[in-house]
Amino acid sequence: MLVGAGNRRRGLIQAALLVGVLAGCTESPDDDAKPEAKASATPTNGATTKSGGSLGAAGSACELPVTFDIAEKWTAEAVDAPLSQGLVTLACEVDAKPAGNIGFLRVWTGTPGNNNARTALEAFVIAEEGASKARYSEFKANGLTGAEVEYVYADEFEETPKKERAFAVTTPSGPVVVHLGGLDTEEHEAMLPAYELARGTLKAHA
């Protein structure tokens, strides 16, 4: 099922996520289960977040062509479903709900080819029905050069358009796109530290 054709399903998923967060507010965090904190990242909005560990290596929750740190309390889960967008397929979801936010950092992977990071990212945004005002840029992290995009998303379920963003790199195993959405722009901006942490710690497998 293409993501671009599933706007109605997306709205229902967001509503379900909101119910899940409200229901989970009564749960007490398990302080003894907290992973050891690593370095913090400082995103463009000035906030910081601590690392909750690395994702992407063999044995981690999601095995990916790259590795990066996820924010403290966020939880990752591999996705085994034929959900595609542009040139990539959904491989992993990192859930912000345990940290008190409504949204996901989603990792999409593709097959090897001649497409560069910008091409993969443009195809990803084009396939997102309701996306507009895309602004592309380049970034570098730990020897990798990639493309990044900020855009606005809206459909019939959105009262107001919301901000979204993603970055992409290419690897010998194919392109990788890391996307941050959120229930609305406020949630999106609250989760930016986690996005910046992932981008800043991004590394290719040795």
Polypeptide structure, described:
The protein is an alpha+beta fold and 206 residues long. The protein has a single domain, classed as 3-Layer(aba) Sandwich (Protein Transport Mog1p, Chain A). Helix content is 21%, strand content 36%. It is built from four helices and twelve strands; from the N terminus they run αβββββββαββββααβ. The chain has helices spanning 7-24, 117-126, 185-190, 192-200; strands at residues 40-41, 49-55, 66-71, 75-78, 84-85, 88-95, 104-109, 131-141, 144-153, 162-171, 174-180, 203-204. The strands form two sheets. Strands 4, 5, 6, 7, 8, 9, 10 and 11 form an eight-stranded antiparallel beta sheet that branches. Strands 1-2-3-12 form a four-stranded antiparallel beta sheet. The longest helix is centred in the N-terminal third of the chain and has 18 residues, at 7-24. It starts with 6 loop residues before the first helix and ends with a strand.
Could you tell me the radius of gyration in angstroms? 16 Å
Beta-strand percentage range: 35-45%
The CATH first-level class comes to Alpha Beta
State the end-to-end CA separation.
34 Å
Query: How many strand segments?
Result: 12
What structural class should be given to the helix and strand makeup? alpha+beta
Gross morphology:
globular
